[in-house]
Amino acid sequence: MGIVDTLGRPVRDIRISVTDRCNFRCVYCMPKEVFGRDYRFLPRRELLSFEEIERVARAFVGHGVRKLRITGGEPLVRRDLELLVARLAALGDLDLTLTTNGALLAAKAKALADAGLTRVTVSLDSLDDEVFRQMNDVDFPVARVLGAIDAASEAGLPVKVNVVVKRGVNEGSVLDMARRFRGTGHAVRFIEFMDVGATNGWRLDDVVPAAEIVRTIGAEFPLEPVEPAYRGEVAERYRYLDGQGEIGVIASVTQPFCGDCTRARLSADGKLYTCLFAVRGHDLRALLRSGADDDELGAAVGAVWERRSDRYSELRTEETAALRKVEMSYIGG
Ligand code: SAM
């Protein structure tokens, strides 16, 4: 039995951001007006090296973590990412996954699979090319993301597809996505638009409640709920009654799941966050670079977790949404 926090929650899952840079400018995540030419991204020396990331990951595995997700920013813009995957895969029998926008995935899928990645999540917000280009705001076509999903699948990686749903922007794509991926083996997960960071102009009116998404899809393709596979599973899952697979919804706004949250997050510059909506992190890079050994690192990480009391989503109001929270591109989605 590993450690638990002040609310009795174990640590099972760590999300590792390997870069704060991205080749997309999704309007709800890294809007161009903020993340433009003058934006100061982290300089290279401030990023954790692969060796440093591996040490932090090992410390978490020692405390009971069984699931590692590499994210960003766009993780595939970090050079030689498969070398990090190989290091993390060697830490044990873990669920080792990656969240990506897919732009660079087709070329990398085989190397990532060979390095020991167990599966991949590809973000794709619409099948309508015009809507998708507007949302990614770099004119990136849907067809290339669909090609990347096929390439990942051919490389032997199970694929999930993430769709962030924003009222008035892509809610019309929900049914298209369900239709397109039914029967392919790729589960689609619909995510409520969240008030992460402080730059995406979040308003409660922009959120399409998960219950509405399930109703929309269920009206065309009847669904039934699936029992959670484990404590802390983020997506609420539903299966198609005709056996064509399943969908998930992530209802962080309308049905917060803080009580079961077993996730830690490591930013690209080595800060440890115990909530996606945190304002401050704990500086592990300073510890790593001051010569701490693995026992000291493990103890520091454990102490942070044992003090954890975050439950932001359960306390969310229009006022908390305006707090200066860290950006998702920095902390990792
Ligand atoms: N670049 C990678 C990608 O596109 O998947 C990984 C990082 S991205 C921050 C991770 C996920 O967070 C994506 O699926 C993205 O759509 C989602 N995301 C970003 N901002 C969000 C928000 N405000 N609400 C809900 N999901 C969001």
Descriptive account of the structure:
The protein is built from eleven helices and twelve strands. The chain is α/β, with parallel strands linked by helices and 333 residues long. Strands 7-8-9-6-5-4-3-2-1-10-11-12 form a twelve-stranded mixed beta sheet. Helix 1 links the parallel strand 1 and strand 2. Helix 1 packs parallel to helix 2 and helix 2 runs parallel beside helix 3. The longest helix is centred in the last third of the chain and has 14 residues. 41% of the residues are buried. The model has no long low-confidence stretch (mean pLDDT 94). The structure holds S-adenosylmethionine.
Write a compact overview of the structure shown.
This protein has 333 residues and is an alpha/beta fold. Helix content is 30%, strand content 17%.
Helicity, as a percent range: 25-40%
Tell me which oligomeric state these chains represent: single chain
Low-pLDDT windows of residues: none
How do the helices and strands follow one another from N- to C-terminus?
EHEHEHEHHEHEHEEEEEEHHHH
Bound molecules: S-adenosylmethionine
Structure characteristics:
333 residues; twelve-stranded mixed sheet; 30% helix; alpha/beta; globular; binds S-adenosylmethionine; 12 strands; single chain
Give a topology summary.
Elements: E1 13-17, H1 50-62, E2 67-71, H2 81-89, E3 95-100, H3 105-115, E4 119-123, H4 129-136, H5 142-154, E5 159-165, H6 174-181, E6 187-192, H7 210-220, E7 223-226, E8 236-240, E9 246-250, E10 263-266, E11 271-273, E12 282-283, H8 284-289, H9 294-307, H10 312-315, H11 328-331
Parallel strand pairs: 1-2, 1-10, 2-3, 3-4, 4-5, 5-6, 6-9
Antiparallel strand pairs: 7-8, 8-9, 10-11, 11-12
Helix pairs in contact: 1-2, 1-9, 2-3, 3-5
This protein binds S-adenosylmethionine.
